[in-house]
């Protein structure tokens, strides 16, 4: 009898109470005090991090009906670099990256997508690189996959050992959960390609993604093949 009660309580917490906050996007159960506390802690800090107050000098590299893309360079005014770092930190914590520093901070360029509500809903960090290792597509992957493979979507990707020339490495790409599948990431990449090297347009082959997540790989595969 007691076991049954416990089961019902657990199910209640997991299924019935799950809410997505319509401002910060966090999924939590409103009737769990611990979850509520965590949400309260996260909510304001997150919204502050992605809030864009407007800069005196902003480098607009693209404009759209639903927002604009700003480019932040390492030697830009402190307050702009700080905002870029704040957003990158939000992205990193969601991606589970521990390391908060960049491999070449002096060369990194941050692209921020600011929407019409003045929120930074997209962040992309690009760095110049010389070579990359292609993620191998295995044509027979499904045929050869065992049941365990299907259960393990975070499996390491298989990379070629032969380096290929590339010019621009995407070390981070992140879009706010409530703003996904609206072409924000695609538009940020298009903008990187047209603005990264002065006077020339990079092809899709000249950009490389570092360490893609499952979401990142689905996106990159789609983007690079269209
Ligand atoms: N599942 C399947 N297909 C997808 C997904 C997905 N999760 N995301 C994008 N695609 C494909 C779709 O075909 C999509 O077109 P459609 O919406 O018309 O079907 C196409 O890619 C273009 O997608 P966008 O709208 O441009 O991508 P979005 O703005 O949603 O951003 C991103 C994609 C950046 C991967 C986002 O989901 C995200 O921030 N995820 C969490 C963070 C993350 O994993 N980032 C990648 C890390 S890898 C790295 O940083 C190098
Ligand atoms: Zn919230």
Structure description:
This protein has 226 residues and is α+β, with helices and mostly antiparallel strands. It has helices spanning 2-16, 33-50, 78-95, 141-144, 147-151, 184-195, 214-225; strands at residues 18-20, 27-29, 60-64, 67-72, 109-115, 120-128, 131-132, 164-165, 168-175, 207-209. The chain is built from seven helices and ten strands. Strands 3-4-5-6-9-10 form a six-stranded mixed beta sheet, sandwiched between helices. The longest helix has 18 residues, at 33-50. The protein starts with a helix and ends with a helix. The structure holds acetyl coenzyme *A (ACO) and zinc ion (ZN). Residues 95, 170, 172-175, 180-186, 209-213, 215-216, 218-219, 222-223 line the site of acetyl coenzyme *A.
Give the key terms.
single chain, 226 residues, alpha+beta, two-stranded antiparallel sheet, 7 helices, 10 strands, 21% strand, globular, binds acetyl coenzyme *A, binds zinc ion
Number of H- or I-type helical stretches: 7
Q: Could you tell me the mean pLDDT? A: 84
Portion of residues within helices = 25-40%
Strands of the widest sheet, in order across it, are: 3-4-5-6-9-10
Shape: globular
Structural class: alpha+beta
Order of helices and strands: HEEHEEHEEEHHEEHEH
Low-confidence stretches: 139-145, 150-156
Number of strands: 10
